[in-house]
């Protein structure tokens, strides 16, 4: 006998201590469409409070009893949460699961956020160092500075896929692996202070890319194996604010460093900047060993019951979930899925539109203020962007919606890019900085959440997909580094015009994926897609 066929007796066993009439049990069974055991258990939580109306009805209470109406309404309310939205994604109703997610948030998010904050602090320190005569001190000419920006991403791209394949392997502890890599990039970043010429800076930037590469795709993979589709967008948004806040405060940190330590102990301010930031990063790397999780079934700071629940709830939330077959098989699965390439193109266009990041102090500097004022003015647009990022992540997760969030946010960014192209008015250009920074950054969590939700049939496929998409996406930083030559200021028409096109392409690819997933969902609903379950793709 199947679980669905035996559902009445199964419910009767669970609630045997409660005086439930047979009619109410039948109502419950008719309301529950999902046959999953956990869904039924969560639904039964409504009866754990033993409605007084039932006590009156079964134990001789007098007077008319209309409690069945309230009970049916309660059952329907819980059923809506268990049944989920158009994609089958469900809200949390089990107190044990809610407690688990809170524990994950408290343990995972603070350390990941701190690591990502320092990841961008170290990577983008060079943009602020440029304002303290780094180019002149190292004798950089022509496009040599731009080449030092882009070379980081060559090393970064080479390590992304193999690193995430290692992350998905049960032979490696993600907590130890990511922390060691962070310690290495801290050392390399601090070594930037020792460079004397173009070749030295070029080599340091390349190896900084190699050592930083494991963190971001690894962080996305960790979030994807612990959080469901409705949860992950907000968590990626919170993580991404580490990038935004880092960019916002980096200018303030640099301004303070240059003002107080320039020429101290015969070192320039930009050299002190790399030394101080590298030392802080190295200290945080040590904390990561103890605070980061591993895999759901092997994380040390979870109880055995919590480990199993953490694993099971992700399995329930996965479309076309399959058995794991190893890291190499996961890579082959990812490369054979054409949706990987559309998502890679979308994220590439999105990050291409974000290419202003490495040149943001230069873009703001085109307003004509002093270097100190310029560094201070870089902060507010990023603070505003962080707020927008959180809001978009919350609404995208709550409504399990992707396409319109990308369309509206990138639409705002496109308008900001256009304003930067057409006017030299300082006020308008500064407002444009708010628009394109907030609009472009806000969609990052939406796209990456879409990646893990769409391509997560196995953990290994998910890890390989995230790695590959990050490789393709971050390749944009190689060529966008050449879109902001000094002689193109103050409008930077080449960069801003290109960003406008990148933003439009991001929107177009989001709609293409939406139509694709809608078609796939229709096949799943008709039962014409082999191996498909009851969960549909979100768009």
UniProtKB/TrEMBL annotation:
Bilayer-spanning residue ranges: 141-159, 180-200, 206-226, 238-258, 270-292, 340-360, 372-394, 406-425, 431-451, 463-484, 496-517
Cellular component GO terms, alphabetical: membrane
Domain Major facilitator superfamily (MFS) profile: 108-539
InterPro entries membership: MFS, MFS_dom, MFS_trans_sf
Location in or out of the cell: Membrane
Keywords, in A-Z order: Membrane, Transmembrane, Transmembrane helix, Transport
Membrane topology value: Multi-pass membrane protein
Lineage top rank: taxon: Eukaryota
MF GO annotations: transmembrane transporter activity
PROSITE patterns named among the record's database cross-references: MFS (PS50850)
Keyword Heme appears in the UniProt entry: no
Pfam families found in the cross-reference section: MFS_1
Entry's family note: Belongs to the major facilitator superfamily.
Protein name: Major facilitator superfamily (MFS) profile domain-containing protein
Protein's organism: Penicillium salamii
Lineage of origin: Eukaryota, Fungi, Dikarya, Ascomycota, Pezizomycotina
């Amino acid at each position: 006998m199947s679980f669905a066929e035996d559902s009445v007796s199964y419910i009767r066993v669970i609630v045997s201590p409660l005086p439930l009439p047979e009619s109410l049990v039948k109502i419950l069974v008719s309301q529950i469409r999902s046959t999953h055991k956990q869904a039924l258990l969560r639904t039964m939580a409504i009866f754990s409070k033993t409605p007084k109306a039932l006590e009156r009805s079964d134990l001789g209470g007098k007077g008319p009893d209309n409690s069945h109406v309230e009970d049916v309404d309660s059952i329907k309310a819980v059923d809506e949460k268990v049944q989920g939205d158009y994609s089958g994604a469900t809200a949390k109703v089990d107190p044990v699961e809610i407690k688990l997610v809170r524990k994950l948030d408290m343990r995972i998010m603070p350390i990941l956020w701190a690591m990502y904050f320092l990841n961008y602090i170290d990577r983008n320190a060079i943009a602020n160092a440029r304002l303290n005569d780094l180019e002149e001190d190292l004798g950089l000419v022509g496009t040599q500075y731009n080449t030092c920006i882009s070379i980081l991403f060559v090393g970064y791209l080479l390590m992304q896929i193999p690193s995430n394949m290692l992350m998905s392997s049960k032979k490696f502890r993600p907590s130890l692996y990511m922390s060691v890599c962070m310690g290495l990039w801290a050392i390399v970043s601090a070594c930037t202070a020792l460079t004397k010429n173009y070749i030295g800076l070029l080599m340091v930037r390349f190896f900084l890319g190699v050592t930083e590469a494991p963190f971001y795709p690894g962080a996305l993979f960790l979030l994807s194996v612990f959080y469901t589709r409705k949860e992950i967008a907000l968590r990626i948004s919170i993580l991404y604010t580490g990038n935004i806040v880092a960019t916002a405060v980096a200018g303030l940190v640099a301004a303070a460093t240059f003002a107080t330590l320039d020429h101290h102990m015969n070192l320039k301010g930009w050299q002190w900047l790399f030394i101080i930031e590298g030392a802080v990063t190295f200290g945080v790397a040590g904390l990561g060993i103890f605070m980061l999780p591993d895999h759901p079934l092997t994380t040390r700071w979870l109880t055995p019951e919590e480990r199993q629940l953490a694993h099971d709830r992700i399995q329930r939330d996965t479309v076309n979930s399959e058995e794991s077959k190893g890291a190499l098989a996961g890579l082959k699965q990812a490369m054979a899925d054409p949706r990987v390439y559309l998502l890679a193109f979308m994220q590439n266009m999105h990050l291409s539109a974000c290419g202003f990041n490495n040149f943001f102090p230069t873009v703001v500097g085109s307003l004509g203020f002093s270097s100190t004022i310029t560094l201070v003015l870089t902060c507010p647009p990023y603070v505003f962007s962080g707020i927008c990022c959180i809001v978009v992540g919350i609404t995208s997760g709550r409504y399990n919606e992707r396409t319109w969030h990308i369309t509206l946010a990138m639409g705002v960014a496109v308008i900001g890019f256009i304003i930067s192209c057409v006017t030299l008015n300082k006020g308008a250009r500064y407002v444009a900085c708010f628009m394109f920074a907030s609009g472009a950054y806000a969609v990052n969590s939406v796209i990456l959440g879409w990646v893990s939700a769409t391509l997560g049939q196995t953990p290994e496929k998910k890890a390989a997909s995230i790695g590959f998409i990050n490789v393709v996406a971050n390749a944009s930083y190689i060529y966008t580094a050449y879109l902001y030559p000094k002689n193109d200021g103050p409008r930077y028409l080449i960069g801003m015009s290109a960003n406008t096109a990148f933003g439009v392409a991001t929107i177009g690819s989001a709609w293409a994926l939406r139509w694709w997933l809608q078609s796939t969902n229709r096949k799943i609903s008709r039962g014409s897609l082999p191996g498909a379950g009851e969960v549909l793709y979100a768009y």
